[in-house]
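stage 2 :: seqdesign
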């Protein structure tokens, strides 16, 4: 029996081709209907997690995939809970209506601010809307070019109705901000302005005593440094050989195949195959599972990766707040 195809495409390459930007192109699934509006909790954690399951690098049966064009619509300044001062990108004429539709564009921002408490998102200074059509990339984050301690959230207005996937993706994206912000990783202006410069990356990595994320050098005791040291040392050499296949490649199929094979070999270590993309994706994906899954009772490494976050009282509190907000917000 064949599952619905669900896969992720990676679009945004930041730093060492790291994909902060998500790249959750999930060809999904008609089966995940949004909740009904009269229920107390319109979105359930079970449905949110179910939307994330998926064989995104399993290219079996996929052929001739053409990456869709992506267009920015508007850029907003963030002022507390509000977005303001839009500037508009050049977009095709058939997107003009969406581009000026503040109510539509505010929906994505509202989901983010409804879920994440204000004190946990102070570093988000900009909100962008874009679209690449339904599915594909749902949301992304990035650092601002003039101040890498400030962050940008981007949401595709075409995916607003795909609530379960969008909520999971927003929490995954938020996890990037949580684990790569200036309290965790040294903001690096040179890297953020020259993200594809591999020799710059290498020299920065060589000078970093802790885990180098691709965006900067992590601090000792940071979430990502601890996560990497605990879970990645045994697989990193093998993973790096796979990861290297994507650089300079015209056809990414060999890379995706090798990554999926890596996942199959180490299935007990990763919450899903997208987590094998990069250590920064692993921690983000594991965080989203931490938020939406019950606390695991087993001891596999993938379960340990979820339990990892329970060691931090501030993250347990954040999880409780997000889940509380999930039910009280009118999502
Ligand atoms: Zn990501």
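stage 2 :: out
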């Amino acid at each position: 029996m064949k599952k619905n195809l669900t896969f992720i495409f990676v679009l945004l390459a930041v730093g060492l081709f790291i994909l902060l930007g998500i790249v959750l192109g999930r060809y999904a699934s008609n089966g995940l209907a949004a909740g009904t509006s009269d229920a107390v909790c319109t979105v359930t954690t079970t449905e949110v997690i179910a939307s994330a399951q998926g064989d995104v690098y399993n290219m079996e049966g996929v052929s001739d995939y053409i990456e869709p064009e992506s267009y920015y619509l508007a850029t907003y300044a963030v002022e507390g809970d509000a977005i303001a001062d839009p500037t508009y990108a050049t977009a095709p004429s058939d997107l003009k209506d969406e581009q000026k539709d503040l109510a539509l564009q505010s929906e994505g921002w509202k989901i983010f601010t409804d879920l994440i408490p204000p004190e946990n998102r102070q570093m988000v200074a900009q909100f962008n809307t874009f679209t690449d059509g339904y599915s594909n990339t749902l949301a992304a984050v990035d650092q601002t070019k003039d101040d890498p301690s400030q962050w940008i959230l981007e949401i595709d207005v075409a995916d607003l109705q795909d609530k379960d996937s969008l909520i999971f993706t927003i929490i995954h994206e938020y996890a990037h901000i949580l684990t790569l912000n200036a309290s965790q990783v040294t903001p690096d202006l040179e890297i953020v302005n020259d993200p594809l410069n591999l020799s710059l990356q290498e020299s920065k990595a060589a000078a970093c005593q802790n885990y180098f994320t691709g965006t900067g050098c992590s601090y000792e005791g940071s979430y990502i440094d601890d996560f990497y040291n605990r879970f990645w040392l045994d697989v990193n050499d093998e993973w790096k050989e796979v990861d290297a296949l994507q650089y300079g490649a015209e056809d990414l199929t060999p890379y995706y195949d090798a990554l999926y094979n890596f996942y199959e070999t180490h299935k007990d270590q990763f919450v899903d195959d997208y987590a094998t993309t990069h250590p920064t994706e692993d921690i983000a994906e594991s965080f989203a599972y931490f938020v939406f899954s019950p606390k695991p009772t087993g001891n596999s490494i993938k379960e340990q990766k979820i339990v990892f976050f329970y060691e931090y009282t501030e993250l347990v509190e954040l999880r409780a707040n997000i889940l509380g907000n999930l039910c009280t917000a009118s999502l």
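stage 3 :: structure notes
- The chain has twelve helices and five strands.
- The first helix runs from residue 45 to 52.
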